[in-house]
């Protein structure tokens, strides 16, 4: 929806690039984790697809962004997705080995996942404050719930706490969001019915889209 608007308007408007850049870093880390850990090919495959998707999003963002925003976006991509990821790979590859290497990558990925899963808190606060779900789309809440649920139970089955903990948190946030949606979906809001680009959930959410 966000990029349909961007392509249609041929402008990024007030949309932020950071969520997509952070999600790309997240999928890169989890792809590296999946490749490094024996038997974690599902994690690697799904997140490798996420790398392709997020890279496409960023390219489209750069295509339609203003010159100033392009410079900012390029700097963030270089610093976070290239330099930071390369540093993580080099340090873990040459300084660590075996379980220590896998654990280090897992902690990095899980930490970033938890931070990214915290983004719905602002949306939930807005829903409670306005008593309206107009800024919390149902599909976003549903897929947050579904994504967290699937990966949490996958982690339980394979015994992987690095996958389980952050996605368990996402699963809980998803349940809370769906509960809020059920509670306030019939309520009317005193605010405008058309969300502006700076409303909490109209901004691209930095949730791990593929993990």
Describe it.
Keywords: Membrane, Repeat, Sugar transport, Transmembrane, Transmembrane helix, Transport. Belongs to the SWEET sugar transporter family. Its main location: membrane. It is a single chain. This protein is an all-alpha fold. The protein has 2 domains: 1-95; 116-189, Monooxygenase. 74% of the residues lie in helices and 0% in strands. It is built from 8 helices and no strands. Helix 2 (18-36) packs antiparallel against helix 3, helix 2 (18-36) packs antiparallel against helix 5 and helix 5 packs parallel to helix 8 (161-184). Mean pLDDT is 81; it is low at 188-211.
Defining key terms:
single chain, 211 residues, mainly alpha, Monooxygenase, 2 domains, 8 helices, flat, disordered C terminus, SWEET_rpt, transport, sugar transmembrane transporter activity
How many extended strands?
Answer: 0
Number of distinct helices = 8
Largest sheet: none
Q: How would you spell out the order of helices and strands?
A: HHHHHHHH
- State the distance separating the first and last CA atoms: 20 Å
Q: How large is the radius of gyration? A: 18 Å
Shape: flat
Q: What value does the average pLDDT take?
A: 81
**Approximately how much helix is present in the residues?**
over 70%
Catalogue the unreliable spans: 188-211
Q: What class, by secondary structure content?
A: mainly alpha
Strand content range: under 5%
Number of domains: 2
Protein name: Bidirectional sugar transporter SWEET
Pfam families: MtN3_slv
Keywords: Membrane, Repeat, Sugar transport, Transmembrane, Transmembrane helix, Transport
GO molecular function: sugar transmembrane transporter activity
């Amino acid at each position: 929806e966000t990029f349909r608007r961007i392509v249609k308007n041929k402008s990024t408007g007030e949309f932020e690039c950071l969520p997509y850049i952070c999600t790309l870093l997240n999928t890169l880390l989890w792809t590296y984790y999946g490749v490094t850990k024996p038997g974690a090919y599902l994690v690697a495959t799904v997140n490798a697809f996420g790398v392709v998707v997020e890279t496409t999003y960023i390219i489209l963002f750069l295509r339609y962004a203003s010159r100033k925003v392009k410079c900012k976006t390029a700097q963030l991509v270089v610093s976070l997705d290239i330099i930071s990821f390369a540093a993580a790979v080099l340090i873990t590859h040459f300084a660590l080995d075996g379980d220590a290497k896998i654990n280090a990558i897992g902690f990095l990925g899980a930490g970033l996942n938890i931070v990214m899963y915290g983004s719905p808190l602002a949306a939930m606060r807005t829903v409670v404050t306005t008593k309206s779900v107009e800024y919390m789309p149902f599909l976003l809440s549903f897929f947050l719930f579904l994504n967290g649920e699937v990966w949490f139970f996958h982690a339980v089955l394979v015994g992987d706490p690095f996958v389980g903990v952050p996605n368990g948190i996402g699963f809980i946030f998803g349940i809370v969001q769906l509960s809020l949606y059920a509670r306030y979906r019939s309520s009317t809001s005193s605010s405008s019915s058309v969300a502006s680009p700076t409303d909490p959930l109209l901004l691209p959410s930095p949730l791990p889209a593929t993990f």
